């Protein structure tokens, strides 16, 4: 028999139980029914594989009608904010995914303050949410705040470029920044290790606050703790975006095909984090 405040009518009547022990189920049912909103921003100079990675992360084609600019057009291009929204469903759980893209960022010859339209956009979303929350009808507020920003760092440099430092410093108080080393297949493992170390040092030196994984509970099992440690140690993640579905060991997987072999994407691009 239950010791709670609910009236337990025995096992046959499990469904009629009305105590607070059903609270987790109610919360679960409600959130699944409502679905989740997630807004992800991607930033970094063009050609670093942002669209490819987003498509491989969510297994959709979010950039169907993208227009690529030529070099001449890019010289005068200002930073734009473009939103792509898609509804995804996985095992009955709905996600309204919004990808906020920042074409033109870091592409100009003079990149002074090119992060300004991006910080303005983030601030506007906070203000809008604050206004909606202070209003009368708070039931159906559309949350457009940016939850996370994937920042792509070029694999071809010796660490962070000045524009990377400026961007992250301008945004680190407003959004969770996850720095990524783009196109990691262009580097060999020792180069990746060196670049990661350099980036970590520079992040420290410039006082940039990147997203920190939450502490894992002390009562978690050892395997989980180990996984958590490895994940924290491997930041900034080195990523590879998949552009095709390839046949590997008799299975069809998303990956990249090279003359010398295949990089497998397992089930998501995160698994490719080195
Ligand atoms: P974006 O401008 O940052 O959105 O870059 P795209 O996603 O359009 O990618 C630009 C080019 O880089 C395309 O030809 C992609 O196929 C290629 N690419 C994307 N991701 C990777 C990667 O992880 N490794 C390599 N080697 N090439 C990539």
UniProtKB/TrEMBL annotation:
The keyword GTP-binding applies. It is found in: Cytoplasm. One of its GO terms (molecular function) is GTP binding. Pfam families: Septin. The record marks 156 as: Important for dimerization. InterPro entries: G_SEPTIN_dom (IPR030379), P-loop_NTPase (IPR027417), Septin (IPR016491). Residues 34-274 form the Septin-type G domain. SUPFAM superfamilies: P-loop containing nucleoside triphosphate hydrolases. This is Septin-type G domain-containing protein.
């Amino acid at each position: 028999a239950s010791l709670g405040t609910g009236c337990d009518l025995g096992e046959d009547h499990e469904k009629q139980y009305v105590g607070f022990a059903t609270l987790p189920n109610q919360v679960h049912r409600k959130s699944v029914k409502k679905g989740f909103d997630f807004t992800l921003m991607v930033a970094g100079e063009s050609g670093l594989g942002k669209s490819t990675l987003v498509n491989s992360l969510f297994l959709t084609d979010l950039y169907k009608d993208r227009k690529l600019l030529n070099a001449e057009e890019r010289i005068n291009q200002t930073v734009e904010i473009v939103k792509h929204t898609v509804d995804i469903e996985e095992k009955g759980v709905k996600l309204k995914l919004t990808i906020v893209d920042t074409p033109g960022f870091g592409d100009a010859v003079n990149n002074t303050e090119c992060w300004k339209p991006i910080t303005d956009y983030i601030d506007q979303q906070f203000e809008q949410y604050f206004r909606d929350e202070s209003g009368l009808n708070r039931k159906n507020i559309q949350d457009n705040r940016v939850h996370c920003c994937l920042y792509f760092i070029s694999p071809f440099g010796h660490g962070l470029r000045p524009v990377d430092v400026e961007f992250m410093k301008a945004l680190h108080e407003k959004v969770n920044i996850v720095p990524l080393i783009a196109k990691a297949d262009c580097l060999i493992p020792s180069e990746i290790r060196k670049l990661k170390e350099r980036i970590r040092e520079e992040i420290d030196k410039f006082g940039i606050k990147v997203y920190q994984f939450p502490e894992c509970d002390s009562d978690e099992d050892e395997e989980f703790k180990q996984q958590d440690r490895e994940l924290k140690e491997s930041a900034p993640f080195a990523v590879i975006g998949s552009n095709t579905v390839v046949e590997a060991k008799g299975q069809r997987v998303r990956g990249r095909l090279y003359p010398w072999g295949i990089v497998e994407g397992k089930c998501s691009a995160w698994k490719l984090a080195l």
